[in-house]
Amino acid sequence: MAYTRLYRNGGLEAEDFPIEEVSEYIKDPTATVWFDLCTPSPEQLRTISEELGLHPLAVEDALHSHQRAKLDRYPTHLFITAYCAGLARDSGELTSYEMNAFVTSNALVTVRKDVAFDIGQVVARWDDNRDLARSGVSFLLHGLLDYVVDTHFEAVQALDSEIEDLEDRLFEDRPQDQRIQLLTFELRKSLVNLRRVVLPMREVINSVMRRDLQIVDETMTPYFQDIYDHVLRATEWTESLRDLITNVLETHLTLRGNRVNTIMKQVTSWAAIIAVPTAVTGFYGENVPYPGYGHVSGVISSIAIIVVLAAALFLIFKRRGWL
């Protein structure tokens, strides 16, 4: 399904009209047109390219997935690639959805690679800020980029919460080492993927705001500056999370090593205690006379020696914290 909208003189004049009518609307310099394509075919993009005069390289990038987040400048238009992001709470896996946009003087074309990219959220932002519609394409582009950057910020915040929960699990009485290790590596992978999505957006927003491009007018400049501020905060947050997840991994390995040392101390202590009765009974089991040999007093003395020595060792190891 294709979504379309026509703005004229700051007001929404029409929507959900056939894409074939776009070429007629864009001839009017007072009109601003937006239409959305989800997983379009090469033929559809070529048709749009001919109507809007899009560069073949930009169309080629729109057809191929896994492009780096970027802004390319062409003589008649701009081409933007960006990703919205989301973090799965249960698994810690990051999901991202690619979006391409062609920006002309009075038209915005969004090309989504996946239906999971919620274009409805973008439309809702436009409806909530209708008083800015007079800014034309600048207004439409702001709503799109604002939604994308907000998903980055939410993903970073969710990742931060997951790392904090992981830190709490490290110090549980009975930590699940395998689960912690798997979750740690999954969060590290998600953080790496998130940095690939977030960091290039700083360059994208900064380029959009350049005065020589004449995309952002004076009215929309503070709003794009706000987006840029969010991008900087998300970028700094991801950098701090990289150090934090590294500390979590190192702490986990250290705690495992400490627990192994504690277990070895306990095993060694109990082995020393068990060695006492073994040594005493072995001595009294020799086939030679000894004090109390053949009498009940010998059994009593051997038992007393075992109890006293074992208790003494237990108390010594207990005071040292080995048991």
TrEMBL record:
Which Pfam families does the entry link to?
A: CorA
Q: Which UniProt keywords apply?
A: Cell membrane, Membrane, Transmembrane, Transmembrane helix, Transport
Compartments reported by the entry: Cell membrane
TM helices/strands, residue ranges: 267-284, 296-317
The record ties this protein, via InterPro entries, to: CorA_cytoplasmic_dom, CorA_TM1_TM2, MgTranspt_CorA/ZnTranspt_ZntB
Q: Which GO terms describe its molecular function?
A: cobalt ion binding; cobalt ion transmembrane transporter activity; magnesium ion binding; magnesium ion transmembrane transporter activity
Please name the Gene3D superfamilies in this protein's record. Answer: CorA soluble domain-like, Magnesium transport protein CorA, transmembrane region
Cellular component terms per the entry's GO annotation: plasma membrane
Q: How does it sit in the membrane?
A: Multi-pass membrane protein
Q: Which family does it belong to?
A: Belongs to the CorA metal ion transporter (MIT) (TC 1.A.35) family.
Which protein is depicted?
Magnesium transporter CorA
Organism, per UniProt?
Rugosimonospora africana
Upper lineage: Bacteria, Bacillati, Actinomycetota, Actinomycetes, Micromonosporales
